[in-house]
Specification:
Blueprint (H helix, E strand, L loop, with lengths): L6 E12 L2 E12 L3 E5 L6 H8 L7 E6 L4 H4 L3 E4 L13 H6 L3 H4 L7 H13 L15 H13 L5 E5 L7 H16 L3 E5 L6 H4 L2 E6 L1 E7 H4 L2 H8 L5 E3 L2 E4 L3
Parallel strand pairs: 3-7, 3-8, 5-6, 6-7
Antiparallel strand pairs: 1-2, 1-4, 8-9, 10-11
Helix pairs in contact: 5-6, 6-7
Length: 254
């Protein structure tokens, strides 16, 4: 178990380049345990790249990432990941329950088959995201919002300490958005750390207590109440954010 007060995530000098052009550059980032953090920035800012590089899903040009003081290989059991919905082959012939149960393979090992206990955990996670009645359905038969909630349930069943979610709110219905927000808040109450790639500036102050503004480099990172300022947003979005009122963005472009 993590020690009280330790950093959930510590990233040092992380750089990723595509064709010698930096996608993220010299990222230093410290995320305290229990933070509910949005990663926000314009298109092409490197938000998804940051998550994937931290999780060793893509090569790094330089830098390191520690999860509760350990490299990813030693901390894999502490980490849950919800990828972008568009990156998943939803035509693969498998059921909703099977997809969620896959989240337990890291603890079971690939040679041990899930039993009654694992099935109960997977069903409980599906109930938590409002999909219990869909357990036997093929994933290709789900709506976009239901698919997103399925992957959220798969991450929840891992009972991780730190969760990475790549655009979980993208193109979902209001019911799914409300379900995701409730899950985020429940994880936060339980002391889990959650990092979310997010696009909607309007909801940042309402949903998140920690914020990282990114545009290839880190513009600012810290408590949302300090970081979510007009000056920081204009630095991040190249001046296209025009004003704030009561903590809300009144106009933004791009």
């Amino acid at each position: 178990m993590p020690e009280p007060g330790e950093l959930a995530l510590a990233i040092d000098d992380l750089t990723v380049a595509y064709d010698q052009k930096p996608a993220i550059w010299d990222i230093d980032l410290e995320v305290p345990q229990g933070a509910l953090m949005a990663i926000v920035g314009p298109n092409g800012a490197g938000k998804s790249t940051l998550i994937k590089a931290a999780l060793n899903l893509i090569p790094r040009a330089a830098g390191s990432a520690l999860f509760h003081g350990k490299p990813y290989e030693a901390a894999r059991h502490l980490v849950g990941y919800v990828p972008q919905r568009g990156s998943v082959d939803w035509d693969f012939p498998t059921s909703v329950l099977d997809v969620v149960t896959m989240g337990l393979y890291g603890k079971l090992g690939w040679l041990r088959r899930p039993g009654r206990r694992e099935r109960a955990k997977a069903l409980a996670a599906l109930e938590q995201v409002g999909l219990l009645d869909y357990a036997g359905r093929q994933i290709s038969q789900l709506s976009g919002g239901q698919q997103q909630r399925t992957f959220l349930a798969r991450a929840l069943v891992q009972d991780a300490q730190i969760y990475f979610m790549d655009e979980p709110f993208a193109a979902v219905d209001a019911t799914t958005e409300a379900a995701i927000v409730n899950i985020l808040r429940e994880l936060n109450k339980r002391g889990r750390t959650v990092l979310v790639v997010h696009h909607d500036l309007q909801t940042v102050p309402e949903y998140f207590d920690w914020l990282t503004l990114l545009n290839v480099e880190v513009v600012a990172s810290g408590p949302t109440c300090r970081v979510f300022t007009l000056d920081n947003l204009q630095k991040t979005y190249g001046g296209r954010v025009t004003s704030l009122h009561g903590g809300q963005v009144l106009a933004a472009g791009g």
